[in-house]
Specification:
The protein is built from eight helices and eight strands, in the order αββααββααβαββααβ. The protein is α+β, with helices and mostly antiparallel strands. The strands form three sheets. Strands 3-4-6-7 form a four-stranded antiparallel beta sheet, with helices on one face. A two-stranded antiparallel sheet has the order 1-2. A two-stranded antiparallel sheet has the order 5-8. A hairpin with a 2-residue loop joins strand 1 and strand 2.
């Protein structure tokens, strides 16, 4: 046994000296993409798990908190992280010798063709450890481990991205729910106003001061508003179903309250000059990890150009029918094997070219993802600012329309105004109030879009 240990120690020393290099390119994270700096590593933004609290909306807080606990897609992403790291640990263990502890029994008759063995039954027992070790001469295992680690890191990044996407989906659906509520309330208020106007027209008709045409015209507006109500209810049901699915609940079980209020910020969105928001983008970081994995795969394929050294061994006991175990039955063996795909180098080189092409594809994808991210962040800011500008203008329009309706109604009731003027004023009031409700929802949705496009790294103060 001492000889076996001496041989094993010598094999370990030789292997350590031979496996000091790894073929293939050493990966370096791209520092720039065109004129865009990409120097900071990925990190999950501190605000990613709290940004919505700036709205001070208790219902929204509860919805997001529950979604983070119950959503099954997020649970799937978390399980994928565990699976990916398990794959990495399995690949990392390939550096170490592998072995099994075996015990066996064998019986045979006429073990040879010699006449002397006719009718002879032989029995034997063996027990011990069978060892095997693939020595990483040219870094094939090392590169495979690098690839597995990059893929595990990608899975972790995608889990963070799943959280960002889930939170944004819940917030957007909540905005759609409140927006549908608000448009429904506006429609009901408009119906009340139109019914009041219709009552006035009807009274004037009975007094001979109005015509059937005026009554028909006011009825047209009433039916138009009535026809829009089912669409608002469908939008409300759709948002409820979406939220229920995100929270892993049955539809109709959410208790969101009847107050149609869309969350708003008290202060504007804060964008810090010089801040590298790309480091918060999980899609960019994910594509960078894919590039790292594909680069490592080049080394895995390149290592097949060179010989592979493996060592097999046995340490244990072999005995006959008496099942005696002692020094006389002790057994060991060491069997190094050198293999080389010399007759298949064409296929090896083809696999190297495949790996290199995959790396080039991953690089192009990463660079395009950077461009997409930069433009998406800028677009989300511009869209939100323009939406807010449009919303403020529509608020002024609605106020002016409301004033115009009051004046037109007073004149019409006093007999000094035209009915068409009142009708046009009320039609404009209906349109501007409904448009304002849509823009309030749109501004909130685009604000959520800023959060999503900045990976949760934007400050909402």
């Amino acid at each position: 046994m001492r000889k076996f240990l001496n041989h094993s120690a010598l094999a370990l020393l030789v292997a350590a000296s031979l496996s000091a290099c790894a073929v293939g390119p050493d990966y370096q994270t791209p520092a720039r993409v065109a004129d865009i700096s990409f120097s900071s590593p990925y990190q999950q933004a501190e605000q990613a798990q709290s940004w919505w609290q700036a709205f001070d909306d208790a219902t929204l807080n509860q919805l997001i908190s529950r979604a983070l606990q119950e959503n099954r897609t997020l649970a799937q992403a978390r399980a994928n992280v565990d699976r990916a790291w398990a794959v990495f640990r399995d690949a990392n263990n390939d550096f170490l010798p592998k072995g099994t502890v075996d015990a066996g029994y064998q019986a045979s008759e006429n073990g040879t063709v010699s006449p002397a063995d006719d009718g002879v039954i032989s029995r034997g027992y063996s027990g011990g450890a069978n060892l095997s070790w693939d020595i990483d001469l040219f870094g094939k295992i090392r590169r495979a481990t690098e690839a597995a680690e990059a893929q595990a890191q990608q899975a972790d990044i995608l889990w963070h991205d799943a959280q960002v996407q889930l939170i944004s989906q819940v917030a957007t659906s909540y905005g759609e729910y409140r927006g549908a509520q608000l448009r429904l309330v506006v429609a009901e208020q408009n119906l009340q106003n139109l019914q009041q106007s219709r009552a006035i027209v009807l009274a004037r008709l009975e007094a001979g001061m109005a015509s059937e045409l005026e009554l028909a015209q006011i009825d047209v507006q009433l039916h138009q508003v009535h026809a829009a109500v089912p669409a608002y209810r469908v939008a409300l049901l759709t948002a409820d179903a979406t939220l229920s699915a995100l929270l892993a609940q049955q539809p109709g079980t959410l208790k969101l309250g009847a107050v149609p209020h869309l969350p708003e910020l008290k202060q504007p969105v804060a964008v810090v000059d010089g801040e590298n928001y790309l480091r918060y983008r999980a899609d960019v970081a994910s594509s960078e990890r894919v590039l790292a994995a594909r680069t490592a795969q080049i080394g895995v394929a390149t290592a097949d150009l060179y010989p592979n050294l493996s060592v097999r061994g046995f340490l244990g006991f072999i005995s006959g029918p008496g099942l005696t175990v002692g020094g006389e039955t002790q057994s060991w063996s060491v069997a190094p094997t050198l293999s080389w795909q010399a007759a298949d180098l064409g296929s090896v080189k083809a696999r190297i070219r495949q790996a290199e092409a995959s790396s080039q594809m991953a690089l192009a994808q990463f660079e395009q993802q950077v461009f997409n991210a930069i433009n998406e962040m800028q677009l989300s800011l511009n869209s939100y600012n323009l939406s807010r500008e449009q919303q403020l203008s529509t608020e002024l329009q609605w106020q002016a329309s409301n004033k115009a309706v009051q004046i037109a109604r007073q004149r019409y009731n006093a007999g000094s105004g035209e009915f068409l003027d009142l009708l046009d004023a009320e039609r404009e009031l209906l349109r501007s109030r409904d448009q304002l409700a849509q823009l309030q929802q749109q501004s909130f949705t685009r604000l959520v879009g800023i959060y999503r496009s900045f990976g949760g790294g934007i400050q909402l103060i």
